[in-house]
Structures are given as structure tokens and as C-alpha cells.
Amino acid sequence: MKLSRCHNIATMRRLARRRLPRPVFDYLEGGAEDEISLERNTAAFDEYELLPTCLRDIAEIDLGTEVLGCRLRWPVILSPTGMSRLFHHQAETAVARAAAGAGALYSLSTVATTRLEDVAAASTGPKMYQIYIFKDRGLTAEFVQRCRDAAYDALCLTVDTPIAGNRERDRVSGMTIPPRFTFKSLFSFAVHPRWWLNVLRHGGFELANVAHRVEPLARKTVSVIEYVNAQFDRRIGWRDAEWLAREWDGPLVIKGLLTAADARLAADSGASAVMVSNHGGRQLDGVPAPVDCIAPIADAVGDRLEIICDGGIRRGSHVIKALALGARACSIGRPYLYGLAAGGEAGVLRALEILRQEMENAMALLGCRRSADLGAGHLRARG
Amino acid sequence: MKLSRCHNIATMRRLARRRLPRPVFDYLEGGAEDEISLERNTAAFDEYELLPTCLRDIAEIDLGTEVLGCRLRWPVILSPTGMSRLFHHQAETAVARAAAGAGALYSLSTVATTRLEDVAAASTGPKMYQIYIFKDRGLTAEFVQRCRDAAYDALCLTVDTPIAGNRERDRVSGMTIPPRFTFKSLFSFAVHPRWWLNVLRHGGFELANVAHRVEPLARKTVSVIEYVNAQFDRRIGWRDAEWLAREWDGPLVIKGLLTAADARLAADSGASAVMVSNHGGRQLDGVPAPVDCIAPIADAVGDRLEIICDGGIRRGSHVIKALALGARACSIGRPYLYGLAAGGEAGVLRALEILRQEMENAMALLGCRRSADLGAGHLRARG
Amino acid sequence: MKLSRCHNIATMRRLARRRLPRPVFDYLEGGAEDEISLERNTAAFDEYELLPTCLRDIAEIDLGTEVLGCRLRWPVILSPTGMSRLFHHQAETAVARAAAGAGALYSLSTVATTRLEDVAAASTGPKMYQIYIFKDRGLTAEFVQRCRDAAYDALCLTVDTPIAGNRERDRVSGMTIPPRFTFKSLFSFAVHPRWWLNVLRHGGFELANVAHRVEPLARKTVSVIEYVNAQFDRRIGWRDAEWLAREWDGPLVIKGLLTAADARLAADSGASAVMVSNHGGRQLDGVPAPVDCIAPIADAVGDRLEIICDGGIRRGSHVIKALALGARACSIGRPYLYGLAAGGEAGVLRALEILRQEMENAMALLGCRRSADLGAGHLRARG
Amino acid sequence: MKLSRCHNIATMRRLARRRLPRPVFDYLEGGAEDEISLERNTAAFDEYELLPTCLRDIAEIDLGTEVLGCRLRWPVILSPTGMSRLFHHQAETAVARAAAGAGALYSLSTVATTRLEDVAAASTGPKMYQIYIFKDRGLTAEFVQRCRDAAYDALCLTVDTPIAGNRERDRVSGMTIPPRFTFKSLFSFAVHPRWWLNVLRHGGFELANVAHRVEPLARKTVSVIEYVNAQFDRRIGWRDAEWLAREWDGPLVIKGLLTAADARLAADSGASAVMVSNHGGRQLDGVPAPVDCIAPIADAVGDRLEIICDGGIRRGSHVIKALALGARACSIGRPYLYGLAAGGEAGVLRALEILRQEMENAMALLGCRRSADLGAGHLRARG
């Protein structure tokens, strides 16, 4: 199968599965525990039905919008995802370039495998950096300064990972810290020699942004991840978000909340936006799908914050539903990682192109020309 | 399996699948994207339960009705469907004749493979022509005149196709414009030699009604479809519907809307009827099933317009449910195409006979003699 | 598998399926069209949850009740079913004897294969005769007189069969009138020689109660069924029910209605009871499950009529749920036919014993001693 | 598979299934009749969605609570289960020790295979004894005295077993009283020789707590179970519960009720707590899942009684949901029996460790530090 034959995200996912050793694919794909939230994230979209309007002038569909102060060609953000080099040796640089090419906003994860300065040098498009508040506030402050120097447009504070989620696929496959290989997982690596070759040639999986903090002798991925985990502060609170907002003094999005109450706290803390998210179903299993949380959050803080919906998006029409419910934009993770695994930068571009075409097609058939025109009248609950 | 052994639409569908190359069957069968609306169109009927009345005189069931000024023996319309010669070399002529024989209203598509004048000559029954408003209003006006000359009873303006839907089965099988064959699809064509022979003998798939507009040298199906697509005007609005209503000055049905708001606009524009439809799930995926939209539309415009339900009908009892919800008639597409593929005119007749027998049987068991007696009291929401 | 190993109705069903040629089993098992009502009849019970009461004296469970003037040991009726000799050569006599042995009320069908006088002679238990109103009212009056002479306790007028239902399994298997065998069905008969031997030895399938009306030369089953069908009067109405009530002047149950409106008409016509039924899902597909119709009917006529729930019962707890909703008794069909096919009279007894034991067990665990104590407080809608 | 590879209760269940002869596993696993309540017990948890709160200090999660006067390290009770020696020769002693090690409350069943005094001698942790009110009140009084002497902390009166439930798996496999082996079940025993060896070496399945009441010559398991069954009093009522409360004069929990009405009676009778339970789906099939009954019971008696939820728990997050609905603690049965079958005391410890880790993880991700802080705000009904 070739990229050009991928006509939707589902086929791109199949291509990615074929290209990756199984434990690596499972790391990409899996969610926490019974994966109820993971599955629900996408399924929840089906419970909203689109209500088209007919005989409207749809000659020029314009999906352009402004999010976090960035002008985007369409209302899509690429979520911060860790360890992207696992999926393709071009890693974050490829994703950032594809995002810029597609007119979307790129987010770089703190646990990325490319230095934030290198990403900034490689891509001219709008960029956001995903940050944690570490025990060592100095480390966080250092990141703020580096982001400012590298001209990042926005910061994204992730708040749903005070500890790691219970991802059982990784425990079965041995993709844990430290890794623990089984006969089955070794076999899967063995039959993907191209993957191994690329890994060796491109210097492995260094967590590039934090590696300098670890003693040179221990700069293996495992040690760095252990260092990062040890740095997570389980005591942080909304005051720390306020501190970060002041420190950064620019567009700040709080990522990983699901309730109106938390969204109000985010607004009070000085954030410009909230990313409604359950971390792709990878943290606490059994929480609601983000799309089901948009309406109450929009009611509560829609006039104070931009709302971004993150999780479960596999179709252009999903973006439309989220916008009709009150979101300003959607953020996608697995769809672009499928593209990355399937074909590096070209794969990411193809994934974005698919979603964009689907969204434009759906807008036309919905009789709606601009993202901003989408509203509650375009949806109804199913049944 | 023979036609006489087909005792319901589902078995007729299986027979059709056996007779057609797989890409052709998929073109007939498929819907847009995840085919959620396609599946829902039929499944939605099951959520209404029929409430019979007992010990009523049902000696003479009379399903006769008047739709769009045409007297019909039962409240069924054959939806306009494109490219029917793909399914059987007798094509639209066979369907129109079977419809006339069964006392139903036939609709001819603009992208049919038989000239509208030839259909009119071949069939004495009530007929409707499905029209588009093209960029070139003159082309539309030309069709209006030809329909008047050929004594068509009604016009049907399709409004849910400002652009083509995203039908993924066709993209996988290569049934796109231009076609793109895969090894798999070629094999499927190869094992259906009778289908090929008939195609060759009967002059292929010329879009007979518009072919004269294309330069003679380019009169291949592909060029004609490309011409038609290029003719679609993405700027048309309700004023154009008004213009068409005046131009035609006869029974006009607006096909492809799903909301009360659009139905009101249709009434205001001078239409006589609306066909509640999502294009058989082939345009925008995720929209409601037509049967679920009847009641609100009947509430809004039931006194001003006739309401026709199009989509998902596979049983006589489905027609009854739609009528009890407020429809005047139902329109069917795939059921008669299965018949056409299974056995030409005889197959279409058999499909109509099955639905008619099922409907009469259900009317008798419901204790109801006339279509017009069906009402909200004969239904309840399930559960 | 032996009868004693059948510990529930589901295993008894499997035993019956093994003993019968497939077309015969399908005739027993099948419903109309898509079998939605057939499946729903049983599934609907699961949507009611039982609410037990604890620490109640349940030393003596007494299921006894009075239905249609008959004292029964438990609130169960054996529904009238046609052609029972197809399932076992002991036919209706065996069923009537088993019912008497189990303290349940037996109903004999007009299209039975045993004369009503012979059943009366063979069984001392309470008995009901199921009657149709034929075109020839004299034939109906003749039956009334014969029932009176044979000391039947009650009459049952079936009102949901003005015409035959559309049972597709029978059309596929050839179990139609006249039969039409396929290679597959003939094979199935061939591998059940014991079934054939018994059929030959016991005189086939004469419709014993009406056969004398047909010319001697034509007294084949097929001719008799055709005669019966020809006798059905599609014009009968509630006045005919009134006429029958006067004619019989004893306990009369109207069988086959599902709405409060029809139940009111039944009460007005002089009936003593209604049997809420959709003919085991064999007539109009898509109607509600009987258990879902009890409550509205009990609200409407609970003070004027006894309510009997017929359809879907496979567990003793199903009977309890129907009673808690307002039924006086339940009527079962397939469960005893499985028993009949599995082992004649002993099989019917086993089926009844299973249901009775299940019901007693459930009553004890519910903390309820008498059928009459069951009420709305013992149930709640699921979820 | 080894214990350390069991990362959730589902994998531990698979390990248990491999270690036990099938009839024994089915005895552990099975429920009554169609096992609707059994399956619903767990599935019902999925219909509640967790609502996390972000950026809360979760440095120190403290799950400690007080139940029935016992200080526990986390809000979990091990339900009383009969015949544990069937699953592992270490039997109840192993379970009690593991419970003590894990800081949970252990409950010993009257139909245990270890004497209550021996369990008390072996375990220093908090303990509860599950008691029945027998026909012979003297036998019950004897147990009360023995429990007092052995320093049990609480009594648990089971009220949902006035008679045995209809467990069909046991009837199929022959695990009935007396046992009735089939060829299939004997084969299953034969291929588990280690299980047999342990059974023979450790003295079989004596019901240790009641065996002394049976004549020495008849002290086989079968006779003892028959004796116990014969002792069940079907006439007991709430007055007997009052009598027991006075007799014991200590913490008493009524186990096996599902309604607010019965919970009020329990409070009036002098109980300290209710265990909302349907006996793991093993008694009356079709009753609600316990988790669905917590809220109405908490409304009715939440201020007078501690509420314990028993049934269906397979994840730490299930405990959290029950607590958020109003329960003080959860009681688990099958999860620890899987552990016992999989690896004796070590297996039970592993099962408890899994649930505990899952619960701590979920509490952290929920942003909640203490069990007592869980409330209605942490949940919403799905969809």
C-alpha cells in the first residue's frame, strides 16, 4: 500500500501498523486499562448528527481561523506527542514541517526527540511548546526562556499527567521504563529490520530537550525518562499555572481538563485557552470523551477562553461537530502519527490533506462556508 | 437462485451481488465515508413499533394515492439513480416500464444512460424528471422544455449534491472518474463475462441526456461526467429554486433536505413537495435517517407540501411507518436496482411486487385499509 | 441428551431441534419477515429488573390462581398451536394431559390435529378452545356447540390472523401450502427416519376438527388448510366478537391485541379476558413485545378484564415480571412445543416442570409468597 | 504465565482458569440462570464516567478508612465465599493472611473449609464472620459465641439465600449436591492432577465450621452441605435480624439487599451497615447491579448506616465509582478467588495489590487524595 492509496485515516493507520514493530505500534495506539475512554473518544462523535442546510452558496469554503494568536488556514492543531522518533527517523522535524505546509499549528512535546531550537529552525509555521511544571521550577523557567528565544507562539501546560497512566499494552509488550522484552515482542522487532536500521542510523531516542540535565554517562533514553518522571511534581496546583502564565506572558493553553469547574479555574489563572482532553485515553480510563465536554465548558467560559477539542478525531466531520458544539479548533494526535509512521513528512502531509479534504467536503455538503458559522443548529443528538 | 425464489429484498440483493462485478456492486451499494448514515437509514425504521388494530374490516385494502398530481396504485416512487446501464443493459427503459406496470411513479435521473424522450416513449406510466441547476441556466431551461415536450408529470430538483460525496468504496475499487483499476477489481470484472458482453453490445454508458453538449470526439462517459461535474454551480440558492418553479410551472419536488427550516424555504420557493433524503447515505455521512426527519417536517409544512421519504426502505412495513409519521409516499432506490441487476425489467417488477405484497400484508394485519388512514396512532417509539 | 438433562428451556429447544427435520423445526421456531418482534418478545423481559425483598417468610410458596373461571395450580396457560402432530405423534392429547398433570390451563387450536372431543376425553384438566369467526357463521356456531358439549371451560377468539403472516423461513424451506420441497429440505427429512415412521404410522396431519367439512376425496392436509384459509372472513369486526360472546355465554378471551384501545373494545364486547399477544412474532413483524404492552392495558381495563401475557416467555422469572406488570397469567407456546418434540407427553411435562421450578425459585428469592402479591414495587426499568 | 505477569484482574482470571478443573472454575465463575445480573454487575460500572479535577496536590494519597469499627488501609473487604479449598489447598487461611497483609477486612463464610478459630489464630488483621440464621437458633447462637471468643470484629448476616440460586453451570458440570460427573467433567479433572493431589493431601472439602453437628459417620462434604441446607429457615424475618443484633451486640452488616425499603428495615433492626449485593449474580437472575442501587440507598439511610457495595468490581476505578455514589467501602469476591486459584496466598496478595495500585493511580489522576473526598461531583451518567 502506498501513501496515495490511503484515502482515509483508517487506511493510514493500517499502513502504520504494517511499518512498525508491534510493541511500538501498541505504544502509539494503546490507552489506559480497558481502553473505554480511548474507544469512546471517537465513538462519541457518532452520537451527534449533522443537520445540513441546502441551496446555500458554497463556492468558496474558507476554514481559516485564529487560535492562540496564530492565523491558521484551518482549525487544526497537532497535539504534542512524545518519542516521535520511535515512529520515523525524521521525527518531530518532519511533523513540524508538514504542519507548516498544511497551515496548521504544531505543538512540540517536552519529551520530544528533537531539540526545540532545531524544530524552530526547521519550520517557519506557527508553533507551540508543551511544558510541564517540574519540581525544579528553574527547569520550567529555563524552558520558558528557550521558547521565547526560539520564537514559539504559545505555551501548552499539560495538567492530566501528575503520574503516568496505567497503559497495559505497554506492560504486556515490554515497552515500559526500563523495557522488558518478551519472545513475542523481540520477534516483532526482528521482522522489521528497516525500522532497526533507521533507529541505529539516527541516534536512537534521546529526549533531546532534557538530556543535557542528565549526567553525560547516563544519557540513555531510559535514564532520561526516569529523570523526567522523577521531576514531575505531584504537589503543583493552580497557583503554579498562574506563575507560569505570568512568567511566559503570552498565549497559554491548559491541556487535559474535562469539566466546566476546571475551565473556570484555568480562566482565572490567566490562560488564553483550554484544551479539552483526556490525553487520548492514555491517563485515567473511564473519563468522558472530550467532544461530550465541549458544550458545558463553552457555556461556562466560552466568552473568556478559546476551547480546543483534543481526542478521537478521525474524520473531517469530527472537527466540524466539535466546532458546532463550541470549540475554536481541534487537536489531533494519532492521525498524524499514523502518517509519520507510514511515510515521514510526506505521510504527515497526506494525513493532514485527508482530514482537510474531508472537512471541506463536509462543509460544502453542510451548506456552510466558514468555521465561525458553525453552531448548535448544525447538530442534533442522535435517536 | 431465480427471481421467483427471491422472497424479500435482502435475497434479491444477494442475487444482484452475484450478477455484478464487485466494483459495480459496490458503486450501487456504497455510501459516504464510514457509511453511518447508510446503515442508519434502514436501522432507524426498527425504532418505531407498529400498533395494530384488531377486528377491522380489511376485505379490500386500497393503497392508491395521489402524489405530485399523479394517481398511483400505491404510495411508492422510484428514485432517480444514475448510470443504470451499469447494472443491466435494459437500463432505465426497463425500470420505467416496470414502474408503470406496478402503478408506481418513475423518476429519471439527469445522469441516466437513456434519453428522457426514449423513456417517455417506452413507458405510459407517471414520470418525473430529476434536474440539476447548472451553471449554464440555459442547459437547465433546455431540460425543462424537453420534459414539457415529453409530457413528464413532475420535476425533481436535487439539492444535496453541490459537490460529490466522499464514497470510499469507489475510491478503493477504482470506480472513480476517471476509473483506476486494481488487480482485484480487474479480476472481478473478468469473472463476470456476461456482464461485459452486455456492456459491449449495448453501447456502454453514455450519459444520454447530456452527451450532445460534449464535443463529439470526447463523448466518452468519463468526459461527460466531467462535463456534468464542471457544470454544477456551487453558488445556487433558493432563488434558483424559485426560478425553476416558475420556469416549469408544474409539480416540483425539492429532493435532499432533512430539516424543517429547509422545508419551509422549499414551500416558500413554490415547490409542491419535498423529498426528505440524504441521497441514500452517499453524500454527507453522519446526517440523520430520513424517517427520523419526517415528523418535524410534517409539523412545519405538512399543510403546504407533500412529504416523500427517501432512503433505507427495504420492507413494505417501512413504507407504512413513514406514512404513519406524515409522509405521503416513499421513494426507493437500491431495492429496484437490486431487481434490475438481478433480472432487468422482470427483476424490477419482482422487487416492486415483493414490497407491494409486504405492504398489503402489513396493512391487513395492522387493520388499516387505506394509506390515508395511517397516522401517529399506528406507531410508538420503541422501548 | 435426555429429557432429565434438560435443565432449562434453551436446552430443551436444542433437543427439539435435533429431533425434527429442519423445515419442521423452522416452522415451529420462525417468525414473520425479519423476526424483529420474535426476538424482541423475549429480549424485552430483560429490560425489567426484579427488586427482591429480603427476610420475608417464604416457607410456603403458593402460585395458585383463578383464570377464566378455572382454578390453576400456577398462572400458566398453554397457548393454542396448530399442527402439533408435526412435532410428535402423540400430538395435542399428550399436551393436554401434561397440562392437566401440571395444573395449567390447556388451549386447543382449531387447526389442531386431534378432534376436540378426543382431547376432552383424554384430559380431565381445565381446557379452552381457540376459535375463529369463519365466513360461514354456522361453522363457528357448530364449534361453540361442540365445545359446550365437550365441557370446555372457555373460548379463545384469535383476532390477529385476518390473513397469514409473512413467514419467510417456511417459504425458504418449502413448508408452505402446498409444500414445495428443495434438495436441502428433502435431505433434512431423509436423515430423520424416525420422524417419518411416526408420521406414517399415526395418520399424518389431518386437521381433525374441520376435516369433515371438506369432501372426503380431498381430505388431505393441504386441502383442509386451503379450506380453512378460504373460510377466514376479512370483514369481521367487534360486533362479531359480541355475537360470539352471546352465543357462547361463558368465559371468553380475545387473543392477539396489543393496545389499550383494543382492550377497551374487547371489554365492551363482552369478553372476560384479553390475551396480549403478537402471535409469537409470526404475524406482523415490528409490533411491540407483549410484555411491554401489559402496563397500559392494565391501566385501561385492569378492573374489567383478566390480562394474559403471551409471547417470549422462556423463564419462570418472565412469568413473574408479567404478573408484576399487571397480568393475571402467562401463556406459553414454543416452550411446550420444544418439550413435545423432545419427548412427547413426558417432554411437555418436563418443560412445564422446569418453568414451574424456576418460578418458585424466583418467588422465594424475591421474598414473595403468592402470585397475587406481585406488583409494580417488584420491578424497575433497567439502567 | 506467572503471578508477576498478571497486570490486571482479567489476566489473573485467565491464570486461574488454567489451574482449575473446568467444573471447579465454573463453580467459581458462574451465576444464576442466564447470568444477566452477573454480567451486568461489572458492565454497570462503565455507565458512570469519572470527572477528574486537575492541578490538585496529590503527593500523598491516603485511602485509609474505618468500616464496621475497623481501621483499614483502603476501603476494601474480602467477601465471604464458600468452599475455598476447592480453589487452593491453602484455603481461607491464605486469604485471611493476605487480607491482613494488604490492610483489608477479611470475611469468613459459614460454609468455609477452615474453622473460624483457626482463621483467627492465623491472621491478626480485622475479621468478620458471615452467619446464617438457622432453624436451630441455638446453632446461630453458638456461632455468635464462638465469634466473640475468637475476637471477630463484626458479623455479617446474609439475607439473599433463603434457598439456593439456580446455577446452571453447576448443573451441567455436575458440581451439584450430590455431585454428578459427566464424561466431559471427569476428563477436565483428569488433566489437572496437581489439583487432585493437593485435594487428597489436604483433607478434602470438609465444611469445618459445621461438620461437628453432623454424625461422625456422615461427615462427608455432601452430607454436611445437605445438613446446612436443611438448616436454612425459610420463615425468618426482620425480627430475627433484630434478635441477632441484640445477641451479638457489635458491628453487624446485613448482606444481600438491593432496595432503599429493605435498607430502612436493616437500619431499624439494629444493623450498623448494609452490603448492597446480589450474591455475585448467583441467586436471583435479573436483579439490578449493586452499583446501580447505591445512590437510592444512600439517600434513604446514608446517615444511619455504612453502605458497602459488593459485586462486579474488577478495577480500582470501580471502587472509586462506588464510593463517589455513596458507599463507604467495596467488597470483592471473584477477584481474590482468581488470585487464590492462581497462586494461594501470594496470588491473593497480588490480586489485592493490583486493585490497590489501580485505585491509587486513579485517585491521583482524579486529583483526589482521600476516599472520604469522593462525591457525586466526581461522576456523571454516561452519554
List keywords for this structure.
two-stranded antiparallel ribbon; homotetramer; 43% helix; 383 residues; alpha/beta; eight-stranded parallel β-barrel
Structure description:
4 copies of one chain form a homotetramer. Chain A contains 15 helices and 12 strands. Chain A is α/β, with parallel strands linked by helices and 383 residues long. In chain A, the strands form 3 sheets. In chain A, strands 4-5-6-7-8-9-10-11 form an 8-stranded parallel barrel, surrounded by 8 helices. In chain A, α13 links the parallel β9 and β10. Chain A is globular and about 65 Å long. Chains in contact: A-B, A-D, B-C, C-D. Chains A and D meet through α7, α11, β8 and α12 of A and β1 and α15 of D.
Question: In a nutshell, what does this entry contain?
Answer:
The structure is a homotetramer of 383-residue chains. Chain A is of the alpha/beta class.
The radius of gyration computed from the alpha-carbon positions of chain A, rounded to a whole number of angstroms, is 20 Å
Helicity range of the residues of chain A? 40-55%
Strands across the major sheet of chain A, in which order? 4-5-6-7-8-9-10-11
Unreliable residue stretches of chain A: none
How many individual helices of chain A? 15
Largest sheet of chain A: 8 strands, parallel, barrel
Rounded to the nearest angstrom, the distance between the terminal CA atoms of chain A is 38 Å
Assembly type of the shown chains? Answer: homotetramer
Measured by DSSP, the beta-strand proportion of chain A falls in 5-15%
| Secondary-structure class of chain A | alpha/beta
- Total number of β-strand segments of chain A? 12
Shape of chain A: globular
Q: What sequence of helices (H) and strands (E) makes up the elements of chain A? A: HHHEEEEHEHEHEHHHHHEHEHEHEHE
Return the average pLDDT of chain A rounded to an integer.
93
- Biggest interface, which chains? A-D, 35 and 31 residues
